[in-house]
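Q: I'm teaching a short session on how sequence maps to structure, and I want students to see two examples side by side rather than one. Could you give me a first protein with its sequence written out and its structure tokens following it? Keep the formatting plain so it prints cleanly on a handout.
A: Of course. Example one:
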Amino acid sequence: MDYSSIKFDDEFEADDEICEVCGNDSMLRIGYNEAKHLLKFECSECGAVFIEESNDKTTMIKGKERDWGEYLSKNLSLPFEAIVTDVSDEEFFGVGDPGPIRMKIN
């Protein structure tokens, strides 16, 4: 299948794409098949390759899916410190409510 042309327009707006394998926001659009309206992505971090259809259905063609439950149980320890960079979720949680994240103010 030919993915020679890269297309970025309103139909496929450029977003930060999160890799389903490694979780990094390092997905790069590397091709577009105009006949079938398919986008081809590659993760610059882990090398996984995905094909995305215009209906947002994604198929991995290179790489191995991560078991996120297992990965987090091995690599995440609670509680952990975090920096909240955006606390405005007023559209969803209501005016003045930062949502479920409670910040510790020093």
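Q: Perfect. Now a second example for contrast.
A: Example two:
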Amino acid sequence: MSLFPQKEPEFSQFLVREYFRFGSVDRVLRHYHFSLPVSPATYQRVLDKYGVIKTAGPNNCISETILFFEHLVKDAADIESIYRKMPLSFQTSLKTIYRIFSYMKQGLTRRVGVALVISPFDNPHKVLLAKDISTPSLELGKRYGCLSLPMGYSRKRDTRRTGVMRILQQEVFTDLVVKNNFPFDVIPSHLEPFMYLDIADVRVAAYSLTLPKEMCSLSRFSSFKLEDYHFYDAYDVVRGNLSLRLGVQEAVFGYLRYLRLVKRNLIANPLQDSSLVNKELATFTVDFEG
């Protein structure tokens, strides 16, 4: 019995769903031992037909470096002793770790990301969070199911709209993309980040989106990266009583500051902040090779 649909449009929808599941065409083809009756070029055309914004590069190494520095701060140890404890699956070189640490000490970034603070139409003080169900790394202190904003990596050449669409497709409306019914109208015509947040060596642009009434049902939201969506009170998030992914508390705190500025009719440049890990590592003294 075939492992995939034989007819259209089910086969194309299957390809789109598997792309979001595995993150790249190559990974899908390798998972099915290259038995799918589709070439890489045809697969890409199917994704284009469904309006899929492609994944922004190999993000696993970036994620593990962020987790490395969380572990470093938690243990108050030196870089090399932490590095020696890393599992064989840890891919980032020691030289790269030192280089990223140097960037963080200098307040520099080399990668970019996007975070979305999504609120329902009737309450701007509610924000959409969901459990991060991506692969845990217990050796690095990454627990399964931490609450996260829709948040991921971007490309420096991306337009703001492209960056926001990628996160909406991958972490909020995956099933709607598969059904070729992505709600383009939830993205405002004018996009301006309310905040830039530095997490490790990634500068994350945070955007505020307000969903119309018809898109606020929790059953609308789907992803292979997040689950159990809920609109949380923003003040509960910043109080720190929830198990949160790195950067979420700082982003929501910045969002509340932004709302206060809007209420006072103040026009300001995007807020600037750094994650708690960045701030704590700024005080570390480590000898390293540049």
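Q: What should students look for in example two?
A: Point them to this: The beta strands are 111-120, 126-132, 147-148, 151-153, 195-199, 202-211, 226-233, 271-274. Also worth mentioning: Residues 170 and 206 are 16 Å apart (CA to CA).
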